[in-house]
Protein 1
Amino acid sequence: GERAIRFSEIMRDASTLAAHLRQLGIGQGGRVAVMMDNSPASIVVVHALALAGIVWVPVNIRQRGAGLAYVLEHCSPAAILCDEAFLPVIHEAGANVDRTCLIVTGDMAVTGARSGTLSLRTLLSQPLDFDTALPSGNDLFAIMYTSGTTGRPKGVLVTHAMMRLAGEAVALVTNARAGDILFMWEPLFHIGGAQVLVLPALMDVSLTMVDRFSATRFWQQVRTSGATHVHYLGGVLQILLKQPPSATDREHAVRIFWGGGCKQDIWRQFEDRFGVEIRECYGMTEASSITTLNDSGTIGSVGRPLPWFSVEVCDGAGSTVPAGEKGEIVIRSNRDGAIFKGYYLD
């Protein structure tokens, strides 16, 4: 929104929350499931868990029923931290979380909250210092569950080093430079949002964040923020193109739209109408999010591998197929930890 948040504020509250979580008996390697919408509080929560070496398990806020119950039971969290609006959703899902510590944003006047439910706002109002040793790059940062399109969702094991590398990849894809402003609408529970959250710790850029994507408010939000970069996924570009043409279509500071899923037939149309450059990339959570980058402007291409990856298209026997033939994408890395080490409990 319009509220400025500095690292000093984030780390003050993150240190307090990390210390309270430690007092609750959640040590390094413990898991905390987080079901929160984008907000100043959700930013603090992610930093607090990272600081304490507690494993962040981001939960899709649109998840319901059996799918939600599966994730919550599969990761066996020591605590669940959620927005008030999602508390009844969690209970209705039927997950066995009776012995799990519940921490809810807001005050304690939470309808249906069981006895012992804690208030995040109350915890943050009780400052504490956190001075325990920091986690290493090889320690687990998060368990990010896949969409489960071919079966049950799988928990991708993401280390601190992997998340940093994802941020470095964003810097390459966006060609960001000092003073740039990245517009963020994507949810933090997705790698597409989480990877951008670390970028201001790596270089002199700012993020301007909104709670969700809105086609009708999008360009006004972008203009007001002075954003220079926008991330896209799926049909975002098509949605923006369907908005009525306006004399103000080019009245913004955006240089680059970057992401995945730009259709060939709208690539140039979008660039010409809004005066921006499209930068397509390809990747997955299992390989530090981004594997290839198209910085040449070749329409329809996901580009070439980032410096720490190699990519081949192989047949069933593992041999490279001739150019133009279909096969399986095989990714390798010369950088330890760039590719995940497995799925949780798999």
Protein 2
Amino acid sequence: MIKLLIADDHNVLINGLQLILAVRKDFKVIAVANNGTEVIDLVRNERPDVILLDINMPVLNGYQTLEIIKSDYPEIKVIVLSMLNDKRNVLNMLEAGAKGYLFKDTDDKNLFKAIDDVHQGAYYVSNGLEDILEEFLCHHKYPDKKNKHILSSRELEIVSLIVEGNTNAEIANLLFLSTRTVDTHRKNIFYKLNLNNTALLVKYALENKAFLGLH
């Protein structure tokens, strides 16, 4: 039995989650909270296995709440449930100790898998956040290297295609992405590698194939 606590300041969402989670007989929602202070009090008394935690909550927000939980109850797993999809918020919550990050519109299949995986000690994030998780994990796997020097698997894929001479539009077509997304990746690559143009990127990539894992 996995004991769950739901923390969100919208009761409609809490009620909806409870109905979804009731499908799984091995899940038990033991408490709900509308703000961070309530979460801390409930954690102290109920000791859930997994917390589904919103970021934007009154009194104590999700980030502040998570920091306290991981400091006082490190064994409790936390999955963030939020509509915020920017890199800064995702990384901040992972750095604070979250094991999962899901968008609030996630389907029940992904919600169940996230709870199962996180409960067992793994990480789980919504589609579209894999590169951010990979960057976070790389940083922690290789703490001696600065985070900005670590490229995600998608960024490495794009570097490889740039080296082959593809334009942003061609890369977008090959990877089924928008040209704007490719352009954003390109800018992030330049920033991480401290480069400012394509020619320098190609030169760097050719000189550092082994480090970048390029063929």
Protein 3
Amino acid sequence: HYLILEYVDGPTARATLATRGRFTVGEAVGVGIDIARALEFLHTRRYVHRDVKPDNILLHPDGLAKLADLGLAKRLNDDAHLTSASQG
């Protein structure tokens, strides 16, 4: 199994926070909405991301926030209860 993801030529939310400080309220709301939409997309396909954090939010130059790093994602109907490197 493999994933093909869009290349995002932009910083992470963590890097942006470190270099320029807090987001404005409008920026924070926009990032929150974009990430909520990404999580909704995953959940409708029965996946849970399990690692949402500023390091895994990429800020696209067009202003959209993208959720990255699905390395810990888990399918909800899997029988395994633990994460493993070979989990499919």
